[in-house]
Amino acid sequence: MRFLRPRGLEDGGRGIAAALANGILDCKCAGGGSLPRRTSRSIATSRRAVLLPRFGGPEVLQLRDNVEVPDLKQNEVLVRARAVSINPLDTRMRSGYGRSIFEPLLPIILGRDISGEVAAVGASVRSLTVGQEVFGALHPTAVRGTYTDYAILLEDELTQKPKSITHEEASAIPFAALTAWRALKTTARISEGQRVLVIGGGGAVGFAAIQLAVANGCQVVTTCGSQSVDRCLAGGAEQAVDYTAEDIELAIKGKFDAVLDTIGGPETERIGINFLRRGGHYMTLQGEAASLADRYGLAVGLPAATAILLKKQFQYRYSHGIEYFWTFMRADSEGLVEIRRLSEAGRFHIPVDKTFPITQVREAHEAKERKQIPGKVVLVVD
Ligand SMILES: NC(=O)c1ccc[n+]([C@@H]2O[C@H](COP(=O)([O-])OP(=O)(O)OC[C@H]3O[C@@H](n4cnc5c(N)ncnc54)[C@H](OP(=O)(O)O)[C@@H]3O)[C@@H](O)[C@H]2O)c1
To answer: Enoyl reductase (ER) domain: which residues (predicted)?
Structure first.
């Protein structure tokens, strides 16, 4: 790891000159001023990172030193990572999902979620300052990853970490929570008194959705595995149906205003849509845009995906009178602030099942993929 240690005015500005010469031209220092002041911060010019040089199993992951830190743009933030969580998207990307976007860019750094401290900020960043503890997540198609000790995110992708939880706990939250937020708040615009069905409440997104819907005054029913029933009920679901032991179509009564389907198979889609009242919203996390683009290339795959989506939207509007959506995670600073507020109030959490040091990233991916660990796995960055 190589560091620049700008010493503000103490060294006659040589530290500042070095920082500028190393490409961090737009940086502000602690306190948010536009010129460096007396500060003890360090600016990393190289870092450790988990690189994906080619698609494949966990063995293709490489933890390398001396990976360059790119120039920080005006609206970007350099975060000293303390913990990064593993999402299903990470293991799928490692195996080649999204290759139509990522293959020409290899090697890339994996990872979406992060919790850590602000190490430097771009010139236009106003809401964050050096030294603050932050958490957040990159957009699903972002080329820059978080499996590194110094990650770059946009200002909008970060907010202050909830004070009451650890970096490990915080890193498990943003990607899953913002996916649930996107579906329930942005798309379905849930409101007090509505009924929400979460298919797959045992997973991170599903559990986040239960808690967000409850916090918005909704009545929530969920389907989950037997080991997740108690947790879903503790999270506020009024009913948690064990999909391994019960017929969910018989066990669940009444109609719903919104269905979030985290599984998104043909059977859960059929069931979810039949449970909606007219005007309700069905949202699946398994949109086909990336898989069709991977199979046929971006030029053919994306228009094909759009055509499939429009056809389904038209069909379901006509046959059931409902709105059909593919939900994709999006950064949402307002959502992230609200999620932090709920976390600090003790009303929102994502349990972490196991942590690994980042040096054991291959073992962590393997354990997650073999379903040896059902819940969230977090990589600790020392
Ligand atoms: N489109 C997007 O932007 C986006 C964003 C985030 C995630 N995703 C996708 O959404 C899915 C969920 O993500 P996640 O982070 O929540 O994953 P996760 O934490 O690994 O959760 C997966 C959970 O699904 C549950 N499950 C499996 N089959 C089920 C079924 N038939 N009925 C009900 N529950 C079932 C299991 O819970 P039990 O232990 O209770 O059995 C499992 O723990 C993944 O496929 C992921 O790739 C998409």
So the answer is: 56-379
Q: Which amino acid is at 223?
A: T
As a whole number of angstroms, the distance between CA 338 and CA 69 comes to 31
Q: Which two tokens stand for residue 162?
A: 């909830």
Taking the CA of residue 265 as reference, the ligand 1 atom at the shortest distance is 31
Q: Are residues 93 and 167 in the same domain?
A: yes
9 and 119 housed in the same domain: yes
Whether residue 146 sits in one domain with residue 119: yes
Q: pLDDT tens for residues 86-118?
A: 999 999 999 999 999 999 999 999 999 999 999
218 and 136, same structural domain?
A: no
Domain that includes residue 261, residue range? 176-326
In a domain, 339, yes or no: no
Residue 363 lies in a domain: yes
- Point out the least confidently predicted range of 27-36, 208-217, 364-373: 27-36
Question: Omega before 107 cis (within 30°)?
Answer: yes
Q: Which of 233, 262, 275 gets mutated to test ligand 1 (max ligand atoms within 8 A of its CB)?
A: 262
Q: What is the pTM of this model?
A: 0.90
* Identity at 96, one-letter amino acid code: G
231 within some domain: yes
Tell me the sheet residues that pair with 155.
none
